Amino acid sequence: MDMPQRYALIIAPADAADPREDFADTFTPIDVTAPALSVGELSTQRGDGVFESIGVVDGHANEVEAHVQRLAHSAELCDLPAPNLAQWRQAVAVAAAHAPAGEAVVKLILSRGVEHGPTPTAWATAAAATDFSTVRRDGVRVVTLDRGYDLGAGERAPWLLLGAKTLSYAVNMATLREARRRGADDALYVTRDGYVLEAPTASLILHRGGEFVTPAPSGGILHGTTQLSVYEYLESRGLTTGYATLTIEDVMTADAAWLVSSIRLAVAITAVDGTPLASDPALTAELNRFLLSPR
Amino acid sequence: MDMPQRYALIIAPADAADPREDFADTFTPIDVTAPALSVGELSTQRGDGVFESIGVVDGHANEVEAHVQRLAHSAELCDLPAPNLAQWRQAVAVAAAHAPAGEAVVKLILSRGVEHGPTPTAWATAAAATDFSTVRRDGVRVVTLDRGYDLGAGERAPWLLLGAKTLSYAVNMATLREARRRGADDALYVTRDGYVLEAPTASLILHRGGEFVTPAPSGGILHGTTQLSVYEYLESRGLTTGYATLTIEDVMTADAAWLVSSIRLAVAITAVDGTPLASDPALTAELNRFLLSPR
């Protein structure tokens, strides 16, 4: 989880076609502890908006392009006005410049705006990241939890917004609480028909038989920016990566398994539903060194 | 949809066991157009909280007890601190007293609060309601849309929060947009295994063979406060009501079908996926006269 915000700026959303190179006059820094949003905000009333969490290391924001592109994709799935990507890139840069040293997180939020209002509401925050060094070293125990959907639900029913990173995260948070109640650190979502999908806030990657695989990003799964980065890294080392339909059995019998995400980065799955899993501490450390480097 | 808020008060949540009779000093009226919430609010960041919308007619709030009880039930499902019901009843009364004449809506919101903060954030708003007189007279055309889940998902997987009225309503809103794209006014959610559940913001009631039926409120469906009121009314008239597992075919062949909710009240379903449905304008009008009367 993030630490309290230290810096925030309100963004007056520009039209996607606005050709300006400098959007500085659309940013308004605010006091993060002061009231900034009205109770008419649809983000608060209905979780109606989209977001991104970007890892920042010593002021450098990582994977910015993948994050702003996914923000635009999520906005499209939610019928929100297309964000101006140049404006959002600049907002990330400004927020990252105000982030504390070490590991930090820049969060982008694009809300549908105030009810009956003319435009979306948008803002970015910067805060120190939680210290995840222990879990990066020791890994996480996960429990498998039913996502309720079958594997085809996302493609069949795009109004379920399974491919969008929306502000409606109550279920993701409830799933993490259930995992902790069961004595685990995290959860692995499983479809009704027995396939593994992702964790509530992370993607799954397996190493098996010399190949790295992750569940195919269909409409039912969020395409992980960190997973894409890890794949680029592995491929640059000449390793084979791919997408597949995976079962719990595939996870249990993998040579190693990780949950990867933008802030916690790569953590080994050390147990699934109480059964220990093989892991690869050297490769985990190597992946995290890569993920902490400027990209 | 609601109109812009006209009145709002922030509620400092009291402990559920607080025995006070007067909570007036825990209410702070605010300017609804002014900033009131910080960007650290988990309602905005993750749709992490619960809510209720209460119908108000000429200053009288209807079904208050059912709504505050459901708020408490939703809070429990979301592991939020139990609300003090006396405090919330009083908040409803204060907000309703400030609601405009005619039909209005009082909305209650209980958020998990500011990230890493000590307590939930809570507020109530009052606003004029949209004029639904035309749709109450003419009814709505619905399309059936896949909810992705099977009928047992809610009971099997309580972390999906299907029985809680959470602020994570992005999917409900996307479903209504999809219905409108398809030329309909509203949607009827159908399970993966072919059963009808509810509309994104309303409950379904059918009249068939002299009996009124609604889908059984399992963990997979929100128990509608208006549906309960309608059942009480029908029973007081000596009519038979019940709960059942219902299919689309049951809707298509019903003598009449309604969507019922706290603000729009009872509206006839006049078509399902383009096929006209029988309706009962006299009973619809009677139900709405009852629902508009003080209860």
Summarize the structure.
Two copies of one chain form a homodimer. Chain A is α+β, with helices and mostly antiparallel strands and 295 residues long.
Q: Tell the overall outline of chain A.
A: globular
Distance between the termini of chain A: 23 Å
What is the residue-mean pLDDT of chain A, rounded to a whole number? 95
Strand content bin of chain A: 25-35%
The strand count of chain A comes to 14
Distinct helical segment count of chain A = 9
| Helix-and-strand structural type of chain A | alpha+beta
Query: What is the CATH T-level topology of the largest domain in chain A?
Result: D-amino Acid Aminotransferase, Chain A, domain 2
Detail the poorly predicted runs of chain A: none
Top-tier CATH class of the largest domain in chain A: Alpha Beta
User: In the CATH classification, which architecture of the largest domain in chain A applies?
Assistant: Alpha-Beta Barrel
Spatial extent as radius of gyration of chain A? 19 Å
Largest sheet of chain A: 8 strands, mixed
SSE string of chain A? EEHEEHHEEHEHHEEEHEHEEEH
> Which two chains touch over the largest interface?
A-B, 64 and 64 residues
